[in-house]
């Protein structure tokens, strides 16, 4: 089986700060993978390398077997890689529906008719049907998070990258968003999710990795990974022998 995503010996540094050192990662089609790590470990940087927002120092990124290391960000989006940001970034003066049309028409390269059809579909899937004509800047935090995810889905992705989308939500709001991510994954979309809200992450992903000092130091079933003494010491600040 050809992997949905591969990082092959990927390296990235910002001056003296090394974010990734010959990093390898293989994600299977329709897999849901969570990435953990302390603040500053470089998790968001990894997403930037996958989308092309950041350039590699060395190594390669492959998408369904195709080397996309030199492909511009917009082309990566058009072949099926979408990202939802930690802080929603909608076009605030545009309506919710118009935001989705931009994603479908430009990110997904859909015809106008197809973009409209896709936008209407995503509106309902993401629970935003009643806000189609609302300016995005007037939405509640939960609905802005929904819109951020909806804009990514409007591009019709094969791979969805999620960057701490559960942050700042109440427990019921978090459960609502997690249910939506579950439905997206069940539809066949591969997911790589960075998240500090562990209960949200672990209710979706079947595999977790921990990034520390430029390397993945743990990789496996989420419950096993968070019980690893090294992970507890590094990620949670708990002494391994405590």
Question: Which key features would you list for this structure?
Answer:
242 residues; alpha/beta; Rossmann fold; 6-stranded mixed β-sheet; 9 helices; 10 strands; globular; disordered C terminus
Structure description:
With about 240 residues, this protein is an alpha/beta fold. The protein has one domain: Rossmann fold. The protein is about 35% helix and about 25% strand. The chain has 9 helices and 10 strands. The chain has helices at about 45-50, 75-80, 95-105, 110-125, 140-155, 170-185, 200, 220-225, 230-235, and strands at about 5-15, 15-25, 30-35, 60-65, 65, 80-85, 160-165, 190-195, 205-210, 215-220. It has a 6-stranded mixed β-sheet with strand order 6-7-8-3-9-10, sandwiched between helices. Helix 6 links the parallel strand 7 (about 160-165) and strand 8. Helix 3 (about 95-105) runs parallel beside helix 5 (about 140-155) and helix 4 runs antiparallel to helix 5 (about 140-155). The longest helix has 16 residues, at about 170-185. The chain starts with a strand and ends in a 7-residue tail after the last helix. Residues about 240 have low confidence and may be disordered.
Please provide the count of β strands.
Answer: 10
Unreliable segments (pLDDT under 50, ≥5 consecutive)? Answer: 238-242
* CATH level 1 name: Alpha Beta
Q: Domain count, please report it.
A: 1
Helix-strand sequence? EEEHEEHEHHHEHEHEEHH
Note the gap between the termini.
42 Å
How big is the Rg?
A: 18 Å
CATH architecture: 3-Layer(aba) Sandwich
What is the residue-averaged pLDDT? 92
Q: Going across the major beta sheet, what is the strand order?
A: 6-7-8-3-9-10
- Class based on secondary structure composition and strand pairing: alpha/beta
Q: Which bin fits the share of residues in helices? A: 25-40%
Largest sheet: 6 strands, mixed
